[in-house]
Design a protein that fits this description.
This protein is mainly alpha-helical. The protein has 14 helices and no strands. The chain has helices at 3-25, 27-52, 56-59, 77-85, 88-119, 125-137, 144-153, 160-184, 189-196, 201-212, 214-230, 233-238, 247-252, 262-296. It is flat and about 75 Å long.
């Protein structure tokens, strides 16, 4: 091959690479990739919902009907059966009580502790902070037996209080870490300016610093609620009756000895998804900003 032919071939390859690059970065390719990702992540939600309104024959149909052709009548029958005949109203109430109380406790103590670690120095403060984070790094299965023994001694097995205590222990280290980093991102000069104006430490925190930390507080509250809402391992081991079982454990009751009630299981799964979907849709901006601020200053 002559030098001229070699240069022509190289230029041709360069043009092809440029065309591929323009196609990949083009708006149509980006739109196609994003659409595929949206479809990938939303399809399980869609499939769970359509399964919850199908008949049992429609659920077991092969090949599967992605657009349901056999829908129960009335369309909400599986949900009403689940709610009133399968005690799902109690499971939902238990999940709400446990998740809300846990969120209030974790956000309150985590915010105060995070502010303390960001503004005060005391002996061995770094070791104390690392020790708190270390508790979060332990695998949950490793803490199952100690918690069970402690709650057995305290006669708290099969109570909502036991779940609230476990979830508070599990979530508090993460919230302390996130809020400490969020408070570090707020200039300490604001504290000093407030002191010069005559504000007390508590007034400075309540009126100046805490309003600026609202995105971080919102992100921590959302994460804590969702974790408490969906947790299964401890709820399965520590609860036995309808008075304390939560939605994940209640959904497992649809797996009977000889049959799996797929229609009720799908309805239970869709109910369990609703809080997560609502939180993500309504508060996604707070989640992103809160976690980003915490991560950058880590």
């Amino acid at each position: 091959m002559s030098m001229k032919e070699s240069l022509t071939s190289s230029n041709r390859q360069y043009e092809i690479i440029q065309q591929i690059g323009r196609f990949i970065t083009g708006k149509y390719a980006v739109t196609a990739v994003l659409s595929a990702l949206v479809l990938y992540f939303t399809f399980p939600v869609y499939w769970t919902f359509v399964s919850s309104i199908k008949t049992m024959g429609g659920i077991h149909a092969f090949p599967p009907n992605f657009i349901p052709v056999e829908i129960i009548d009335p369309i909400w029958k599986n949900y009403t059966d689940l709610w009133f005949q399968r005690a799902f109203n109690m499971f939902t109430l238990n999940s709400l009580v446990v998740a809300i109380v846990t969120t209030v406790l974790v956000v309150t103590f985590g915010t105060l502790a995070g502010y303390g670690f960001s503004r005060f120095r005391f002996p061995y403060d770094d070791y104390v902070f690392i020790g708190i984070l270390g508790a979060r790094l332990l695998p949950p299965i490793g803490m199952l037996v100690p918690f069970y023994r402690l709650f057995s001694i305290g006669e708290l097995i099969d109570t909502r209080i036991a779940l609230i205590m476990v979830y508070t222990y599990m979530n508090l280290p993460l919230v302390v870490w996130l809020m400490r980093n969020y408070f570090v991102s707020i200039p300490a000069d604001l504290d000093e300016a407030a002191y010069i104006d005559g504000a007390t430490r508590f007034q400075t925190f309540k009126d100046i610093i805490l309003p600026l930390a609202k995105p971080g507080v919102a992100a921590c509250a959302i994460l804590t609620f969702l974790f408490s809402w969906r947790e299964f391992l401890f709820a399965f081991v520590l609860t036995f009756t309808e008075a304390s079982k939560t939605i994940p454990v209640g959904a497992m009751m649809m797996l009977e000895d000889v049959v799996i009630l797929w229609n009720y299981l799908a309805a239970a799964g869709f109910i369990a998804m609703l809080p997560a979907l609502l939180f993500v849709i309504l508060f996604q901006r707070h989640i992103v900003s809160g976690l980003t601020a915490g991560a950058i200053k880590g």
